[in-house]
Amino acid sequence: MSASTSTRGRRIMSGRAWLKALPWIALTVGIVGAFVVPFVTLVVMAFRTALPGLPGEWTLDGIVTAFTESDLAKPLMDSMIFAVGSSVGGTLLALFFVFVATRTTTRLRRLITPMMVVILATPVLFFALSWAMLGADNVGLVNKVWSALTGSDESVFSVSSWPGLIFVMSIKLSAFSYFLLIGPSMAMNRSLEEAAEVFGASRAGSFFRIYLPLLSPAIAGSLLIGFISSLQAFDTPQIIGTQAGIRVFSTEIYGYVTNFPANYAAAASLALGMVALLAFLVWAQMRLLRGRDYTTVGGKSTRGAAWSFPRIGWLFDVAIVLFALLAFVLPTVQLVLSSFNTVFGRYDSFSWRNYSKLLDSPVTVSAIGNTVLFMVVGGFVTVVIGAVITAALRVRPTRWKRALEVPTWIPWATPGLVGSLALLGTLLAIPALHPIYGTATAMMIALVIASLPIAIRFLENSILQIDRQLIDAARIGGAGPVRTFTSILIPLIAPSFISGWFVTGLAIAGNLEIPLLLGNTKVTTISGLAFKYYVDSAAPMAAAIFCVLLVTVLVLFALSVLGRRLVTRLLDRRTAIRLESPEAVVTGALLPVVPPSPDELPEREPALK
Amino acid sequence: MSGIVIHELTKRYGDATVLDALDLTVREGEFLTLLGPSGCGKTTTLRAIAGLEPPDGGTIRIGDTVVTSVADGIEVPPNKRSLGMVFQSYAIWPHMSVFDNVAFPLRRQGVGVIEVRQRVLDSLEIVGLVHAARRSATALSGGQQQRVALARAMVADPKVLLFDEPLSNLDAQLRISMRDEIQRVRSDGQTSIYVTHDQSEAFALSDRIAVMLGGIMVQLDTPAAVMSRPVNAEVARFLGVENLFEGTVRGLVRSGTGSGSVLAVDVPSLKTVLSAVHPETVPAGAAVTVGIRAGAVMVAGAGAPGDVPPNTSTGRVVQSTFLGEGVQYRMAVGSAHVLARTFSGVAAPTLPPGASLSVTLPPEAVAVFTS
């Protein structure tokens, strides 16, 4: 059957057929170019003496340097401590808040989910940068307040330490874990725990014997995802960890690239090792999350009573407030206060000097412009491409479409820094790309590629939920694939399209690796600039430019909410009109045909008297 | 001593009062059913007895122990009440084997390993699931899960057994066999409270039935009494009395002898005056509701020979429905419809719509509700 089809396909592969195949060829080329080529370049980089594109020789030196150098044990050890510590910390925090939110009558429990949404949406760079300042020895707000309260000169907390590093990473990871755990926790049939109580278990017994074991698949998934995210993390270990002498894989790779002389082969080799490890972990994670099925057979899930803790219940409220303080209130206060002071560590001489300095610098102004451009245009392009890929490859998968989809998963196993390194190598290796090297265009393309997985993830639910018959109906009605995409699919997913646009834009704005590796002193983004200011010991300037970013994000967020509301209202009105038209009521929603003439209308059944 | 005494039990959710000062005494060893439509407060009562839902007012005593007293701030946690309970959703722990599920209550009591093994296997034997002891609980069918739940509820031989609509998730056939199962395995000394909205379950299982409507217990009586004499029109409607009509008492036809007085009730919608047997006398002029089950209505072809019994009117068939075991007629009588169900052999061939017939409402089957 398939053989005969393909023979026929080959015979008529002319003119119109080519035109039909063109979008598929373009898609294949695009996916291969964006995901496969950079990956291959990375592999090549690992075996070359010189940068890709430059004359050099094939060598194993990079591999040898990266994996035999005596102190590889140190980054390996540090990476493990960091990843284990952060994933455990994040999961424990999440577990606590999931329990409070879904199982207790704590007064502030409804604040937890919005709080976690904010943390999830906030770029990692925010937490890294703000806590690096907040927890700085002597000059950070935490230690300043401590000194003011106690008169002691000793610092009470230094973020540049193992506890500090793991704590900051745990904050961000807790939001990930929270949303992984809250679904299973809410879906769990409450009578399972109530049964344990009735049959003699105390609350603690019911928690440890029933609640935790039933949640264990989700907890394992959360630990693994936390571990993977920590291994991939760059911002936090670079900004906070390196000051404490903590060196993880990603900071080592960055060191190989930025130290003089740069050792791209070693960087690429280490990156490949990381990708191999992560690929295994991602595979394990997918298996694990698919694995054990604890759904109970039969029975309605009863909404059981939440537990009230009359004696210690207030502690939960305190924990929620404390976490909100640590996670974003204090960091924001630190950034805002520092941005109005020219000397880091002083919080009393307010002025606009940092901001006016920012506006006077053409690099800063262009960085702000770039960021807005990347967020708006880059975000839009990313979401459109993401929608095209999802619609083309996921809605009706075949073996070929699945194979073509595989490369789009490469970024999940690739740390941002490694991806940036691969893209940098690609730019250098392909002479045709040299003209755009160092330009905003190159940076935007790189950001689009790096953010594509996020856009796909965000859109896939709404696209895959669309009833296929709606698409089929458009095709039968005479619309081609492009027409179907623009006039049926996109309008149907419009609200999530706009949200996805904002979320992708946010990921682009928070990306630090690409501006660091592909940018330069003239072309960068706000994140790149904030990092540079911070590293150059100009923390107040870093705070100021980051505050600019926060305001920009808030404005764009408001715009996206407005846009989403507008689109929803437009869609609603359309639906309302459809439902109000009398023929729709008479003939039923399934057959919106030509309105029947009045004499054809069936007589209404007389109402029962 | 394991009777249950509930006094002025009150529960509110926001502005809605789910239980309004409920008083109820369950005798030791009795099987009592809380019967009522959804939202009547029966499940809340059961959960309050179990300690799963702290009430807003009232006291609960199990045996000699006060387990809940809002005024005194007493709220014994569920695990200290020595109960057995069968949950609506079975609540079989999916991460444990069948054996471990049933063993749970014994292990919490610190029973020794050998005894646990023996008692669990005994319980599984009773419900016919010994062969499945090592299986994962999720691998069982709904009916088997229900049996595990039953075994778990009874394994520790609790003094009080609670059933929260245990059969509502089973299909009709399984429901009947599980109902018999519950009756079979329950030992006589166990005080049992059973919550359901299904009257056939209630009638089949209970020593007494407490009918609850809108958070208030409206009737507490034996199944037979509840069936034959619903306390008011609402209970009658809930119990499925199909024919209910407004009327006014004309007077006494015959005063109380034996089964009660016979009242004459003017029912305008039927354009007739009905005689009805009622245990008490009701003053003339009182507004009442009269009710009769469809199965008690007698139907005969018009012009049938013999004496005309009391309460007979002429009606016209509006709709006839073949029920398999019999026929259901919807008939126009006066300005109202009367529903009648006949059983095979009782009535002649099914009468078509439009046919006229004589409809008899036997006085002893007509209930009079004064409130």
Task: Describe the fold and architecture.
The complex is a heterodimer of chains A (about 600) and B (about 375). Among the domains of chain A are: about 75-135 and about 160-250 and about 275-295 and about 310-330, MetI-like (MetI-like fold), CATH 1.10.3720; about 355-585, MetI-like (MetI-like fold), CATH 1.10.3720.10. Chain A is globular. The model of chain A is unreliable at about 1-10, about 295-300 and about 575-609 (pLDDT under 50). Chain A starts with a helix and ends in a 22-residue tail after the last helix. Chain A has helices spanning about 1-10, 15-45, 60-70, 75-105, 110-120, 125-135, 140-150, 160-185, 190-200, 205-230, 235-240, 250-260, 265-290, 315-340, 355-360, 360-395, 400-405, 410-415, 415-430, 440-465, 470-475, 480-490, 495-510, 515-520, 525-535, 540-580, 580-585. Chain A contains 27 helices and no strands. Chain B has about 375 residues and is an alpha+beta fold. Chain B has 2 domains: about 5-235, Rossmann fold; about 240-370, OB fold (Dihydrolipoamide Acetyltransferase, E2P). Chain B has helices at about 40-50, 100-110, 115-125, 140-155, 170-185, 200-205, 225-230, 235-240; strands spanning about 5-15, 15-25, 30-35, 55-60, 65-70, 75, 85, 160-165, 190-195, 210-215, 215-220, 245-255, 260-265, 270-280, 285-290, 300, 310-320, 325-335, 335-345, 355-360, 365-370. Chain A: Belongs to the binding-protein-dependent transport system permease family. Chain A: Keywords: Cell inner membrane, Cell membrane, Membrane, Transmembrane, Transmembrane helix, Transport.
Which helices and strands occur, and which strands form pairs?
The complex is a heterodimer of chains A (609) and B (371).
Chain A: H1 2-11, H2 16-46, H3 61-68, H4 73-103, H5 112-121, H6 124-134, H7 141-150, H8 162-187, H9 190-198, H10 203-232, H11 235-241, H12 249-258, H13 264-290, H14 313-339, H15 353-360, H16 362-393, H17 399-405, H18 410-413, H19 416-429, H20 440-465, H21 468-476, H22 481-492, H23 494-510, H24 513-518, H25 526-535, H26 539-580, H27 582-587
Chain B: E1 4-13, E2 16-26, E3 31-35, H1 42-50, E4 57-62, E5 65-69, E6 74-75, E7 83-86, H2 98-108, H3 113-126, H4 142-155, E8 160-164, H5 172-185, E9 191-196, H6 199-205, E10 208-213, E11 216-221, H7 223-228, H8 233-238, E12 243-257, E13 260-267, E14 272-278, E15 287-292, E16 298-301, E17 312-322, E18 326-333, E19 336-343, E20 356-360, E21 367-369
Parallel strand pairs in B: 3-9, 3-10, 7-8, 8-9
Antiparallel strand pairs in B: 1-2, 1-4, 4-5, 5-6, 10-11, 12-13, 12-15, 13-14, 15-21, 16-20, 17-18, 17-20, 18-19
